[in-house]
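LAB NOTEBOOK - FOLDING QUEUE
OPERATOR: T.R.
BATCH SIZE: 2
PURPOSE: Compare the predicted structure-token outputs for two unrelated chains run back to back under identical settings.
PRIORITY: normal
REVIEWER: second-year student, initials M.K.

ITEM 1
FIELD SEQUENCE / FIELD STRUCTURE:
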Amino acid sequence: MNVGSRIPLWIIALLAAICLCILAWTTFGFVVPFKHETGQTVLDAYFAGYDELTVGRMQRLLGENETAGILLRAMYAGPELVFPALLTALLLLVLMRLRPSGSYFARPLSPAVIRLVYALPIIYGLADYGENISSLIAFGDSDWADKAAQLLPWMTRLKFASLAICLIVIVRFAIVRAMHREEGEQ
């Protein structure tokens, strides 16, 4: 019996449902009210990325609007405190269930590549928490606010890049697994 086959599908489905609920909580409890209050989008929702100028504008906005600052801090103390860990666990369990193996361009995957594949969700989780910490510092009254403001766009890029690569790898292994299943049926 393989390690991945020991992970029940219902656990993955339950974890996915919890992630969706927390994402909905973040969106409707914090992101939408923040946009209604300020007319601006929370920086965490900038999928295309942003720069230090955008961070500076957000710092000024939060300095002028106390309610927006309270919403942002509450988001990081609430759903954003658990969401990265849950999504990291979900991605890791999906990868374990798919059991990355096989070949790439007719060459077997090396153990180093397989370890790197399993590291992708962890890189995502660390980058997401790094982004959250950088945001709290950059948008607070800390002496480190300028350094955190410079780091924040990079943490966001690393978060979305590792998440995108992880999702691409999951789709690839799911397709390969489905193809092998079809070959076995013939």
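ITEM 2
FIELD SEQUENCE / FIELD STRUCTURE:
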Amino acid sequence: MRRQQKAWLGADVAQRPWTHAERRVVLRGFFGRLTIAVEPLVVSVFFALLPIGLLLRRQEIALLLAPIFGLASVAFMVYAIVLIWPSARAVRETFAPIYTVDGYIRYRTSPTGEPEYYVAALTTDRQTLAEWPLREWPHSIGERALWPVVVEFSRYGGIHKIDGRPTGVLPTEIAPFGIGIARGEEEHRPSQFG
């Protein structure tokens, strides 16, 4: 993957660092997920300390309950990590550059015939730079599959802007801790890639 990326990092692919505003949006999403993960973390610590407390009080049932509480502790810890992992990875990816290319956007369906759709950023000579899966075909583009555009994208996040217009992958602002973002955003958010 890295070799392939170095092959297309040339004169027609510009790159820039994330702005403070863009990184702040991702960080707010991370802290929102972290606040949700606090509960399973606390429960995990509680289940880990409960058998220790029973042993210190010399309760004989502690030896019987310790494996049960240990498994519960591990399960809640895994749940907390699963909650935090995607947003932590997104924060890490904000240290990678955002690429800008004056090239093409290509939409295509899965070659296996499944109802999966993909969007790709291409150079002017139609070399694929990166490709991402889509949930559905963007109805606003009709049947046209190739568009000449200026594309701004990141490898992990997808296409941020097409001809300077945001795609909705990275909102311009997010509420602190991500609270209230689901309410009313669907009506005002532009379609994902078109």
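REVIEWER COMMENT (ITEM 2): Strands lie at 13-16, 98-109, 117-122, 128-134, 146-154, 158-162, 165-166.
FOLLOW-UP: none requested
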